Amino acid sequence: MDLLLNFNSISTLFFLLSLLQFSLLSSSSTLHPLAAHSANLHRNYTAISDFRLLNRRKLINCPPKNFFVKIDVISKSTSLLNEEFVNVTVSGIPNPSKDHWIAMVTPSNANVDGCSLNGFLYGQTGDFSELPLLCHYPVKAAYLRSDPDYLPCNNKGCVIPPVDGKCEQVTCSATLSFHIINFRTDVEFFLFDGGFVTPCLLYKSKTLSFQNPNAPLYGLISSIDSTATSMRLSWVSGDEEPQQVQYGEDGRIQTSQVSTFSQNDMCNSLLPSPAKDFGWHDPGFIHSAIMTQLKPSTTYSYKYGSEKVGWSEETTFRTPPAAGDENDFSFIAFGDMGKAPLDSSSVEHYIQPGSITVVEAMKEEVERGEIDGVFHIGDISYATGFLVEWDFFLHLINPIASRLPYMTAIGNHERDYVESGSVYILPDSGGECGVPYETYHQMPTSGKDQPWYSIEMASIHFTIISTEHDFTINSPQYEWMKNDMASVDRSRTPWLIFAGHRPMYTSIQGSLVIPPSVDPSFVAAVEPLLLQNKVDLVLFGHVHNYERTCSIFNNMCKGMPFKDINGIDTYDHNNYTAPLHAVIGMAGFTLDQFSEKIESWSLSRVSKFGYLRGHATKEKLSFEMVNAMTREVEDSFNIIKAQIP
Ligand SMILES: [Fe+2]
To answer: Where's the Purple acid phosphatase N-terminal domain (predicted)?
Structure first.
């Protein structure tokens, strides 16, 4: 008890110190100075689940060990495959309890003991809970009661050999399924009593290894320029030695550049962040190779790996059309997708419930060959300091990202952290500070931690920016976007689409402390550039729904679309007045619901999971908001413009 009191005293002191730190930081910022002081708002903002709170709960004394307990893991092979569902059976339990749960932990030597010093770490999140529990965050967790046969003890056992044909001790068992992907490090399953609130370790399984922890996985295609004659392929492997991509009919080969990041690369403030501490997981090595001598709008077969680590399955990707290409061009755009578990895990860190359906719907379009490129504009994996979640995200998007350029913009959940140079000082990246994002998603940016770039595909020039980095006039990013948009050759790419993460216009009100919109200073600096450069369409995410505006500037409608012969809203940019904006953050995160108050500039609002499908010719841009559940179109609009002679 003395220890606990001492700890609480120290913890309180440290928490006050952390508040002081935020206070000092806030006073030097013009952005939402109260934000760092609000535990409740932060909790809502980052959707902390019961599971995530696990690390903040107090450890109690464990009941005596039950020596009959057993954990059997049934895998398809003697060692774990790159992807499989394993059945975990816990047996030998005399008294089934609703508080029994099982954790999947990696690496196998991770410390799942109580780790009271971790209490210090949570002050920075604004959370007032007491001690963290586990020193290392489990990958997955599920209550045994999620097997409906567990609590009623429908599956009985008998541990003590029968005497005279009678069983002296009846025991019960539960079986749960866990989805495992190859995240390279060994796995163990731990049985806890006491629920998530007061967990107590009862038993652990044997260690399971992956058959090939060096397997080349999660190939991801991206564009490096607007010629579409060279494309980047990135992939993940446990092996550091360079590997190859082999592509095309003549089997051309390019060798990978290898990069990685370490715990030391993660951000810290006064207190260690999740990414640097209990959420860390070794990312292995990220390989990246540039495939050259390609033709635009052409399909190539490829595989990647090496003789030493093995090869990926052979698949195909298609290059996008080159800048100025007269052909039609189709793309998908969305924000805030993340990932969700495919198994019975009752809880997991930061789940985005719509992501599975959205990926499935997009995958169908990609497989039909109807899409040339994908733009995911911020809030990518929501790993937010729990690094193994990046593997799950890369696995989820693989059917899409391995087939066409998967282009990204950075969001708050990739970049923001205190004292890290982000514009916003909330700890939304959990200490990642953009490092994993930039390593996994290698875009043709201006440089390290300068995640802005442009890319042209067919008739569209995309200007991709970061709302999380300095955007003020004369800042490097401001100067870049100003020059980039001014330099667009509109006879070659008549359409200009501007994309970032936090929106300028949304009907979602949020709060004074954490408004859903981008900071007003962004609007003041950047919106005039959009008008001056006759931007056609502005895409943002961050708010988790779909909303489309009139042609808008300075909060006022400057023009309205007319209805074409099909009744579709059509913006006539022959008589340009201002860009229209669309919020497209409806790809996975729990949806934001609209209130009854409708802004005069808001022309369409849909709070359903889905994505934006775009189709471009030189004269017309057509867009559809696709409902991922039904595949039906919830909103359509066109932008038309006569071609510049
Ligand atoms: Fe966001």
So the answer is: 224-319
